[in-house]
Write a structure and sequence with these properties.
Keywords: Signal. With 470 residues, the chain is mainly β. The chain contains three helices and 27 strands.
Length: 470
């Protein structure tokens, strides 16, 4: 039963909507769009839906068995709003939501939420909410939308984590300005809401989460991003997501400063008089102290290149081929969702405090590079294939002095994903795909399970997807 306050609030909202002048309502044009997708996925190990986790070692019996899953949760809906002109600019708005909300709730709190764990409890999640003003050569955008790092995604069904999502699939609340030059160049800059781990900057007292997975941290600056982009038809076009496109390239960079508070805690590491020794089964709990408050710079430089190889000068895509490649390098890349948070920073050994029986260290950001290369060929206008290899690698870590970041610290050194996808799109509203993926994670440490010693894990995936666009 509704309370009187609830009925009163609903009646007031209805009255306000009815009171909006008819002319104001007519000034905006609303268009509904989105898609519905059905997935069938078989994995040879216990991987999550998006392939965004590390592959468990081949000698881990708890994860080395296959499973088949079906999902119809990937539903997206959006409103595009075309408004009246203002100051000589066209005004538009865009709102998009899906039903993937709560997918991390079980991991963080133990309470079932959305995602594969509880498909009947999928929850709405806001993806985009922004508006923009467009002049002939200039755009001003305010709201939550794709980062300037996120152009040119690969066309595979589940792109996983090997140099692909995160930087590619990154949305943030921002103020963004874009300016075109000579019809072929675009310079863009944004100032965005800062991010720092799983809970943003809202928890001022954050030191550790319940599962000791993250260091206490807070943002000292917003996120600043800049990008220079070039696109031109030099010698013909090749398809990008089904539309002919000329040569395109961009370089982008982002920066943000974070504060890491001092702490004393129990972390994972096997130590000698230098810190940690990497090798077989070197995992012990040790007492660690971050000796003072520290300020670290998270940064990334990202690049993209799209090249038509076999071209067309019409809308006929049959027989065309293209190359798309992305490469990036940065430090502390959990902010771009490209790194695993408890492996994107670590404690570097400084000294041993014999009085308190603690290892004392400085926090360091793990440096990482990665990217992907994609080839795409159209047999006909309806049938085409995508071949893709992606990777990311942690580098420049002093492994002899690593103390760790959490009770879960088992740092990977290399992730690789290989994709082969066959697409069929008989009409614009329907698209089907069949995909094979091989994923591999290599670790710094060897671990012994029974009589088997291993430092890498592999997963094979077969996937089918059907998507209806509206």
């Amino acid at each position: 039963m509704r309370t009187w306050k609830q009925w009163k609030g609903a009646a007031l909202l209805t009255a306000l909507l009815l009171a909006v002048p008819v002319g104001v309502q007519a000034a905006a044009d609303f268009t509904l769009g989105g898609f519905i997708a059905l997935y069938g996925i078989w994995d040879s190990t216990q991987m999550n839906n998006n392939l965004s986790q590390l592959v468990s070692r081949n000698n881990d019996p708890n994860n080395q068995h296959g499973r088949l899953r079906f999902s119809a949760e990937r539903i997206r809906m959006n409103f595009t709003i075309k408004g009246p002109q203002l100051w000589g600019a066209k005004t538009t708005g865009f709102i998009e939501w899906d039903f993937d909300g709560g997918g991390n709730e079980y991991i963080m709190t133990g309470t079932p939420g959305g995602g594969w764990a509880s498909p009947h409890k999928a929850r709405p999640r806001l993806r985009h909410a922004m508006f923009r003003l467009n002049w002939p050569e200039t755009e001003l955008m305010l709201g939550q939308y794709w980062s300037l790092l996120s152009d040119d995604p690969p066309e595979v069904a589940k792109p996983g984590t090997a140099g692909i999502p995160g930087i590619i699939w990154f949305r943030e609340p921002q103020i963004c300005v874009k300016q075109k030059f000579m019809g072929i160049f675009e310079v863009a800059a944004s100032i965005a809401n800062p991010g720092n781990g799983p809970d943003g900057i809202q928890l001022a007292s954050d030191q550790w989460t319940a599962n000791n997975a993250y260091p206490g941290e807070s943002s000292e600056t917003p996120r600043f991003t800049g990008r220079v982009k070039y696109e031109q038809d030099l010698y013909g076009k090749a398809p990008f997501y089904g539309r002919p496109r000329g040569v395109s390239a961009f370089v982008a960079a982002a920066w943000q400063r974070l504060r890491y508070r001092p702490f004393v805690g129990a972390l994972v590491g096997t130590t000698d008089n230098r810190g940690v020794m990497f090798g077989q089964n070197n995992f012990n709990t040790v007492n660690v102290e971050q000796r003072d408050q520290q300020y670290l710079n998270h940064w990334v430089v990202n690049s993209s290149l799209f090249l038509p190889i076999i071209t067309t000068t019409t809308q006929n895509l049959a027989g065309t081929m293209s190359l798309l490649t992305h490469w990036y390098v940065g430090a502390g890349l959990d902010l771009e969702k490209e790194g695993v948070p408890n492996n994107t920073s670590y404690m570097n050994f400084v000294t041993f405090d014999a009085v308190n029986n603690r290892w004392v260290g400085d926090r360091q950001l793990a440096q990482q590079f990665g990217g992907f290369v994609q080839l795409q060929y159209y047999f006909t206008n309806q049938w085409y294939t995508t071949v893709l290899w992606g990777m990311n690698k942690i580098f420049n870590i002093d492994r002899d002095r690593w103390i760790g970041t959490s009770r879960q610290a088992d740092p990977p050194k290399l992730n690789q994903h290989y994709y082969l996808t066959l697409w069929y799109q008989p009409i614009k509203a329907l698209k089907f795909g069949a995909e094979y993926t091989y994923a591999r994670t290599d670790y710094y440490q060897n671990r012994l399970q029974g009589s088997n010693l291993d430092n890498y894990g592999e997963n094979h995936r077969l996937l089918f997807v059907g998507t209806f666009f509206f």
